[in-house]
Amino acid sequence: MILVFDVGNTNIVLGVYREHTLSYHWRVSTDKFSTEDEYAVILKNLFDFNGLHFDSINGAIISSVVPPVTPILEQMIKKYFRVNPFIVGPGVKTGISIIYDNPREVGADRIVNAVAAFTKYGGPLIIVDFGTATTFCAISTKAEYLGGAIAPGIGISTEALFQRASKLPRIEVVKTKSIIGKNTISGMQAGIYYGFCGQVDRIIQLMKKELSSEAKVIATGGLAELIAGDSEMIEIVDPFLTLEGLLIIYEKNLN
C-alpha cells in the first residue's frame, strides 16, 4: 500500500492507496512544531482505528507547501514506516512542463493537481483549489502549466472579517436563501458565499478568454462542492484530485 501526504498551510490531507483505490483518507491539522514522533502517534491512532499496520506500507510520497514540516514527515516515514518517501519538487518526474518565470515558485500542490487533472480529463484545463488560498491554474493541451491566479481563501477571509471588525461574529460559511440578509449573521454569510461564487466565476471567465473557451473547469479542496452549487463555470468537483496526483507521480518515479 502507498501512503500519500498533501501538506497544506492549514491541514494535512493523507490517504492510503491499495492498488489504485483510495482505501482510507484523513485530514489532520498542520503543526509546524510537532515532532516526527508526535506525527507518528497521530498516524498510529488513525491506522489503529482502521485495522491498519505500519508495516503494510511499502511506499510514500509527500507534497508540501510548508517547508518546515516536510523534513519532519520525511524522517517520521523513514523511522516508523522504513521506506524512503518521494518529495514532490525539482528532480521528480511529473510529466508537466512548467511555463513560469521561476518554476521553483509554483506550489507542489498545484503541480500535483495538474498531473491528476490532465491525466483524467486532458487539456486545456482550469483547476480551482479551495484551500487556505484559492488558486486558479491553467493547463494547456500540451500538459504545460501556464500559471494562474491566487486569491485569499474563504476560511482566512472569513476569519479576517471576524478579527478586524469588532461587532461581527465568527460564522459558518453556508449558502443563504436570500442575498438580502435580515440579520448580521445571514448578511455576512450571504456576502461571503455569493461573493466568492462571483469571484470564482469572474476569474474563470477571464482565464478562459486567455486560455481557451473549451477549457474544462475542475474544482477541488474543502469548500469546492459548496461553491460549485452556485458557480456557473465549475463543471466537475473532484475532491481527491491531489491525492490521485500524488499516486500518479509516485508511479512515474518508481523506475
Quick summary:
With 255 residues, the protein is an alpha/beta fold. It is built from 7 helices and 11 strands.
Labels describing this entry:
alpha/beta; Nucleotidyltransferase, domain 5; 255 residues; 2 domains; globular
Name given to the CATH architecture of the largest domain: 2-Layer Sandwich
Q: Main β-sheet: number of strands, strand sense, barrel status?
A: 6 strands, mixed
Binned, the helix content reads 25-40%
Whole-number total of structural domains: 2
Number of helices: 7
CATH superfamily of the largest domain: ATPase, nucleotide binding domain
Strand order across the largest sheet: 6-9-8-7-10-11
Q: Unreliable stretches, pLDDT < 50, 5 or more residues?
A: none
CATH C-level of the largest domain: Alpha Beta
Rg from C-alpha positions? 19 Å
Return the CATH topology of the largest domain.
Answer: Nucleotidyltransferase, domain 5
Helix-strand string? EEEHEHEEHEEEHHEHEH
